[in-house]
């Protein structure tokens, strides 16, 4: 019995306690990021370009599988023939290296931390946080809007009830 608890403790230490944390049922909105529940679309806007992205499922490798639709015109119709559809995977993988008895350095070990959707590249992190900044910059360049919609045909980027988060709002 003790061996069982030792194995569970070792598993949690190795893989992290994040697997034990529940994902939100509704989006969590911060100044520079959103945490999305699985299965619900969020919208991305930069100028007159739009994307719709949803996390399909979490993976055991500290990652997620996503699908996205992108549209380069200002209509934002993800059902049109000019819209693109894609599925992808993101994950965080790090390797620990002990550099002294009290210091550990983490090195990237094959992470894929960007959701690639059409012309958009959004930074992602474990627990399904998506950031307003683009790849390679610390400045917010996108606007994000959360939805409770899980069917792409129901999305409307022109909906007046959408609340676009631009990174300049105060943390909620």
Task: Describe the protein.
- It is built from 1 helix and 12 strands; from the N terminus they run αββββββββββββ.
- It is mainly beta and 172 residues long.
- The chain has one domain (24-154).
- The strands form 3 sheets. The protein has a 5-stranded antiparallel β-sheet, with no helix packed on it.
- A hairpin with a 2-residue loop joins strand 7 (94-100) and strand 8.
- The protein is elongated, with a radius of gyration of 18 Å.
Strand content: 35-45%
In total, the number of strands is 12
Report strand order across the widest sheet. Answer: 1-2-11-10-9
Question: Topology as H/E string?
Answer: HEEEEEEEEEEEE
Look at the structure and give the mean pLDDT.
78
Helicity range: under 10%
Radius of gyration: 18 Å
Low-pLDDT segments, ≥5 res: 16-21
Class by SSE composition: mainly beta
Outline the biggest β-sheet. Answer: 5 strands, antiparallel
Count helical runs.
1
User: How many independent structural domains?
Assistant: 1
Distance between the termini: 45 Å
| Overall 3D shape | elongated
Describe the protein's topology.
Blueprint: H1 2-15, E1 28-29, E2 33-35, E3 41-46, E4 49-59, E5 63-71, E6 84-91, E7 94-100, E8 103-108, E9 114-117, E10 120-125, E11 129-134, E12 143-146
Antiparallel strand pairs: 1-2, 2-11, 3-4, 3-12, 4-5, 5-6, 7-8, 9-10, 10-11
Task: Put the structure in a nutshell.
With 172 residues, this protein is mainly beta. The chain has one helix at residues 2-15; strands at residues 28-29, 33-35, 41-46, 49-59, 63-71, 84-91, 94-100, 103-108, 114-117, 120-125, 129-134, 143-146. The strands form 3 sheets. A 5-stranded antiparallel sheet has the order 1-2-11-10-9, with no helix packed on it.
